[in-house]
Every structure is written in C-alpha cells, then in structure tokens.
Amino acid sequence: MSTELMTAKNDTGSLYVLGLHRNNKRRYQITVVGKAGGLFEDAAYLEVDAETIANMQRCVDEYRELYPNSKD
C-alpha cells in the first residue's frame, strides 16, 4: 500500500514522493521524471527511510536560513 505525499512539477520535469510499507518498515519512494523538448525523457526511482527524509528537510531548512530571499 502506498500514499502520495507530494507532487511538484515545472518545465523541466516532475518530482513525486510516496509513502509506503515494505517488509513492515515505513519507506519513502522519490520519483524524478525529467523532460526535454516537452517530452518525458527518463525517470529515476529512489527508496529511502524516514531518517533520510528528515536529513533532507534539515538541509532545506539550513539553506533557507542562509538564503532567506532565494526562490524555491
């Protein structure tokens, strides 16, 4: 069973984050789909644990503190 947690899209592609359970453990699948010339080119799938997601969020928070005027 999986649950869609986030979707983000722009002109260069899409990013999807799914929450899922595998082997009785909570996991997250990050899917990145890149586009070129308006066509979908390729996709990459990455499965991570909750600690990795927390570390990614910490990095984003630190970046926002360093560059408060930057555009996400």
Short description:
The protein has 72 residues and is an alpha+beta fold.
Structural commentary:
The structure is a single chain. By secondary structure, this protein is an alpha+beta fold. The chain has one domain: Nuclear Transport Factor 2, Chain: A (Roll), CATH 3.10.450. 24% of the residues lie in helices and 57% in strands. The chain contains 1 helix and 4 strands. It has a 4-stranded antiparallel beta sheet. The longest helix has 17 residues. The relative contact order is 0.15. The mean pLDDT is 88.
Write the layout of secondary structure elements.
Elements (H helix, E strand, L loop, with lengths): L1 E9 L2 E10 L2 E12 L2 E10 L1 H17 L6
Antiparallel strand pairs: 1-2, 2-3, 3-4
From the 3D structure, determine the CATH topology.
Answer: Nuclear Transport Factor 2, Chain: A
Order of helices and strands: EEEEH
Separate helix tally: 1
**Radius of gyration, CA atoms, in whole angstroms:** 14 Å
CATH architecture: Roll
What's the level 1 CATH class? Alpha Beta
Largest sheet: 4 strands, antiparallel
Structural class determined from secondary elements: alpha+beta
Gross morphology is flat
Number of domains: 1
Helix content: 10-25%
Strand content: over 45%
Chain-averaged pLDDT: 88
Query: Could you name the ranges where pLDDT drops below 50 across 5 or more consecutive residues?
Result: none
* Straight-line distance between termini: 31 Å
* Arrangement of strands in the largest sheet: 1-2-3-4
